[in-house]
Design brief:
Blueprint lengths: L11 H17 L8 H24 L3 E3 L4 E3 L1 H25 L5 H20 L3 H19 L5 H32 L4 H7 L5 H19 L7 H8 L2 H7 L2 H16 L8 H20 L5 H21 L7 H25 L12 H4 L1 H15 L5 H15 L3 H25 L17 H19 L1 H4 L10
Antiparallel strand pairs: 1-2
Helix pairs in contact: 1-2, 1-4, 2-3, 2-4, 3-4, 3-10, 3-11, 3-14, 3-19, 4-5, 4-11, 5-6, 6-7, 6-8, 6-9, 8-11, 9-10, 9-13, 10-14, 11-13, 11-14, 12-13, 12-18, 13-14, 13-17, 13-18, 14-16, 14-17, 14-19, 16-18, 16-19, 17-18, 17-19
Length: 477
């Protein structure tokens, strides 16, 4: 591997998104409002280009570090690219009807592209400065997306999102400075060599500060306070985005950081992450129990799901099952979460659990997708999340955290309660005084995205044996 390699072609997926954002912003200044959809088509083309380039790289097996080893193109990067770009395509489809003919339609798609480019930068970051640059690029456009509607709930959500992101971003930068002071480097390979002889307190504080920023992107405890308010206050397509794509970037970045830069004997970071995972899954489930808003229920659900995902990060260096469990679970969660949010987007007037009463009779296809997605969150076979949980729980046991796996199983069983609170009304008769507009469908694109995500979740669960080998490439220093 050539550390000074400056092969720009290795960054084709990231370059495709940034190029589409710049071209789309310029084109949107000239396009009439009724033809702003062309920018969405350009964004979709960039995603397809990135997917094709990522698939080609993974098929050829070429792995490398580029730009003085600041960015790694390896198995985890390839899987992360496929997850992010595939998810972005679904988000674009979900956004089609709500954004049609909007006066700022172009800006919306440009912000999505830039934030996704930042997420991809975090996925492959092999240097603390590259990681922080990716954090900023992923975060700043997302703040603008949160306030895109310019209404009171959206403005409040954007302010909370920004303030927490700025606070933890500053903390992350301070942690980067501390780790640089301890290891005299920002590259993961150099840190791996230097940190064992550095002062313990300096490394511990620096690590906690850097992880604070990554936990914010992931929506994990204790950096989770923004998740319910932002998810509930922003438009459903934006909520689908902020509860899905940033998690992929944050969790893969955290996995690479602890696996590549921090020897196990430096500080006891596995126990720290295990405690954070336990707190996230438990708090998320408890807070979701009696929610009546569908978006807030999904918000607390996503916090609990991050807890399960963090189990793999906690045993990153202790189990060979950790990497494949994390990446497969991320793919499964992404499809399942986007499927649920696609249904919420398709039914914009159904805001509470009771509004979904009788959905199976009025919209049987959407009800079927909700059944697949909500039971998928629990981990019901043959959905993909079932295999993802099986892999992650096995990795936790293999890594010596049997207590954490047992707690995760207990939380999984408990979560069935609040998912059933949403599922049960689907098959009950709607009251006669309920106006039909409550379950009025928005259009075809959101429904198509819902059907695609639900079917893909089932297909990935059935074909998991073929998909899991794609996550096995080694990480590069």
């Amino acid at each position: 591997m050539n550390g000074a390699n400056e092969n720009v072609a290795a960054l084709l997926p990231e370059c495709a998104l940034v190029t589409a954002a710049v071209v789309g912003l310029l084109a949107g200044s000239w396009l009439p409002r009724r033809r702003q959809w062309a920018v969405a088509a350009l964004a979709a083309a960039a995603c397809v280009t990135g997917l094709a380039a990522s698939a080609h790289t993974m098929a050829t097996g070429r792995q490398q570090t580029v730009f003085s080893a600041a960015f790694a193109v390896d198995g985890a990067t390839g899987a992360g690219r496929l997850i992010v770009l595939g998810a972005l395509l679904l988000v674009l489809a979900v956004s089609a009807e709500p954004l049609r003919h909007h006066k700022r339609e172009t800006e919306y798609y440009v912000l999505l592209l830039l934030s996704a480019a930042g997420t991809l930068t975090m996925v492959g970051a092999n240097d603390l400065l590259t990681l922080f640059a990716g954090y900023l690029l992923a975060s700043v456009p997302a703040y603008a997306l949160a306030g895109f509607a310019k209404d009171a709930p959206g403005t409040e959500a954007a302010l909370k999102y920004y303030l927490m992101g700025a606070l933890l971003g500053t903390t992350m930068l301070a942690g980067t400075a501390l780790l640089y002071g301890a290891g005299r480097a920002t590259g993961y390979a150099a840190l791996h060599t230097a940190l064992p002889t550095a002062p313990y307190a300096l490394v511990a504080v620096g690590l906690v500060a850097v992880l604070g920023g990554l936990l914010f992107k992931s929506g994990a405890v204790p950096a989770h306070f923004w998740v319910p308010d932002v998810t509930d206050g922003v438009p459903a397509p934006v909520a689908a985005y902020v509860t899905t794509l940033p998690k992929t970037g944050g969790l893969i970045a955290a996995f690479r950081l602890v696996h590549e830069a921090l020897p196990g004997e430096t500080v006891n970071w596995p126990l720290l992450l295990a405690v954070v995972a336990a707190a996230s899954m438990t708090l998320g489930n408890l807070a979701a129990f009696f929610q009546t808003s569908v978006k807030r229920l999904l918000a607390y659900s996503t916090i609990s799901q991050v807890g399960y995902l963090l189990m793999a990060v906690a045993v990153a260096t202790r189990s060979d099952l950790a990497q494949r469990g994390l990446l497969f679970y991320l793919a499964a969660y992404t499809l399942t979460n986007l499927g649920a949010f696609a249904v919420v987007t398709e039914l914009p007037h159904a805001r509470t659990l009771d509004d979904y009463r009788g959905l199976a009779r009025r919209h049987p296809g959407l009800a079927a997708v909700l059944v697949v997605c909500l039971l998928g969150f629990v981990g019901t076979p043959p959905t993909a999340v079932f295999l993802g949980k099986l892999e992650v729980f096995s990795a936790a046991v293999d890594g010596g955290y049997t207590w954490l796996a047992a707690l995760a199983v207990a939380n999984t069983v408990a979560s069935l309660f609040y998912y059933l609170r949403w599922l049960a009304p689907l098959f009950r008769l709607a009251p006669h005084d309920r106006p039909a507009e409550v379950q009025a469908a928005l259009g075809r694109w959101s429904a198509g995205a819902a059907y695609t995500a639900g079917a893909a979740s089932l297909a990935l669960g059935v074909a998991g044996g073929a998909a899991i080998p794609l996550t096995l490439g080694p990480l590069l220093r």
